[in-house]
Amino acid sequence: MTPIIVRCITCRHRIGCPLRTRGAIVRCPFCRCHVCVPISNSDAIDAAEPAISLNPVAWQVQCRTAITVASDLLRATGCQVTGWAVVELIRQIPRPPQGLRGLSSQSLLFRGLQAVARNEVLAKSGKREAILRFVRTTIELPSSHRGLLEASVTGSLLGFGLAGRSLDS
User: Fold this and answer.
1) How far apart are CA 147 and CA 68, in angstroms?
2) Sequence ranges of the domains in the chain
3) Cα 115 versus chain centre, distance
4) 23-60: per-residue pLDDT in tens?
5) SS (H, E, C) the chain
6) How many CB atoms lie within 10 A of CB 71?
7) How many C-beta atoms surround the C-beta of residue 16 within 10 A?
8) pLDDT in tens, 60-98
9) d(CA 7, CA 65)
10) Nearest partner of 144 among 79, 52, 67, 71, judged by Cα
């Protein structure tokens, strides 16, 4: 039987995986990174994404960072910081390959990034760089990780009853 061939997203080596590993997470024998094995061979080669690390503490920090940075970005635009606004702002961050080039000038994210670029207080406090770093790293997230981040932020804000409430109070 022909093995499923996947490419490690980290070291780019081709890995031959037995058919019994379809849908599983395996370690790359070259760099030891976790790689998801697709279910069908037609989805293989470049469809493999790194497995999402579900370390609870690291994941909680990542979600908290997303909420904090999105809130800072909303404050820079002068918008009220609500749970729904935070969720919408995170969802507006574009996905590859278009990146920020595909961002509409009418979007809240575009206006927020312009406000951040002009805000000297954010520059002095280091928040400007944190916001830009968050946007860049979110653009580069694998789609499965990105979807989980959006769902986790939405779920946590809804779970705490903060969807329509101001996060500043």
Assistant:
1) 18
2) 4-43, 56-159
3) 22
4) 777 888 887 777 777 776 554 444 444 445 556 777 78
5) CCCEEEECCCCCCEEEECHHHCCCEEECCCCCCEEECCCCHHHCECCCCECCCCCHHHHHHHHHHHHHHHHHHHHHHCCCCEHHHHHHHHHHCCCCCCHHHHCCCCCHHHHHHHHHHHCHHHHHHCHHHHHHHHHHHHHHCCHHHHHHHHHHHHHHHHHCCCCCCECCC
6) 18
7) 11
8) 888 888 999 999 898 888 888 888 888 899 999 988 777
9) 30
10) 52
Phi, psi of 80 (to 5 degrees): -70, 135
Give dist(CA 95, CA 149) in Å, integer.
Answer: 13
Query: Does pTM surpass 0.70?
Result: no
Residue 57 contacts by C-beta under 8 Å, 6 or more apart in sequence?
A: none
